[in-house]
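Researcher: Quick test of sequence recovery. C-alpha cells follow.
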C-alpha cells in the first residue's frame, strides 16, 4: 500500500517563532512529530522556507530519534521547489548540480523568512509536487480526481497532510485545503494538531 505524505513547515510548527534567522527546533514539538510519523508511517516532504537545508534538518531529526532513513524522502522529491534561498547557497547548489550533470533552476536570491510575499505560491508548490511525484508515492489515478484541472487535480483517495502556520499553504475549495492543518505560530504543533494530522494521514479527509 502507498504510504501517506506529510508536507512539513518548520517555523510556527516545530518551533513557536515566526521569523527565525536560523533553523530552530523545540524538542517537545519534535516529539509530537515523531508520534505522527510512527503512528502513520508517513513520508516527509519539506515545504518550509528552510527546505534548502534538507541534510541538516535530517540530522536534527535523527538526533531526536526520528528514523530519517525511513521517513525522510531524499532530494529532489524530499522538498517542494521553493525559491527562498541565499546567494551563497545558490552558488553551492549551482556547482553541485553542474558537477552531477543536472540542470540548474533559477530562483530569487537574498530573500528572508520575514517576507510574506515569498509564501504566496506555497500551495502551488505543493500542487506541483503532487503532479510530479503523486502517482509514484501516493498510488495510481484510481480515484475520482482529474489530474488536468486546478479544481481537482488528483485522485480523491490520495492520503497526505499539510502542516503549516501560514494560511497560504492551501487554497480554499481545493484538495489541499481538505488536508490542511493550520497551526498557531505561538503554540506550534499542539496535541490536537497532531491528532488531526494523524487522522488525515490514516483516513484522508472526512466526506
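Model:
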Amino acid at each position: 500500500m502507498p504510504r501517506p505524505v506529510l508536507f512539513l513547515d518548520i517555523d510556527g510548527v516545530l518551533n513557536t517563532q515566526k521569523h527565525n534567522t536560523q533553523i530552530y527546533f523545540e524538542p517537545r514539538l519534535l516529539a509530537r512529530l515523531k508520534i505522527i510519523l510512527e503512528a502513520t508511517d508517513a513520508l516527509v516532504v519539506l515545504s518550509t522556507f528552510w527546505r534548502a537545508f534538507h541534510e541538516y534538518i535530517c540530522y536534527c531529526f535523527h538526533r531526536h530519534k526520528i528514523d530519517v532513513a525511513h521517513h525522510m524522502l531524499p532530494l529532489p522529491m524530499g522538498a517542494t521547489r521553493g525559491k527562498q534561498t541565499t546567494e551563497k547557497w545558490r552558488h553551492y547548489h549551482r556547482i553541485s548540480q553542474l558537477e552531477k550533470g543536472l540542470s540548474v533552476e533559477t530562483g530569487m536570491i537574498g530573500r528572508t523568512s520575514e517576507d510574506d510575499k515569498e509564501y504566496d505560491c506555497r500551495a502551488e508548490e505543493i500542487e506541483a509536487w503532487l503532479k510530479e511525484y503523486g502517482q509514484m508515492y501516493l498510488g495510481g489515478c484510481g480515484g475520482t480526481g482529474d489530474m488536468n484541472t486546478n479544481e481537482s487535480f488528483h485522485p480523491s483517495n490520495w492520503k497526505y497532510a499539510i502542516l503549516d502556520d501560514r494560511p497560504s499553504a492551501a487554497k480554499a475549495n481545493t484538495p489541499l485545503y481538505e488536508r490542511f492543518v493550520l497551526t498557531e505560530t505561538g503554540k506550534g504543533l499542539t496535541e490536537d494538531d497532531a491528532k488531526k494530522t494523524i487522522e488525515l494521514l490514516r483516513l484522508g479527509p472526512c466526506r
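The longest helix spans residues 122-138.
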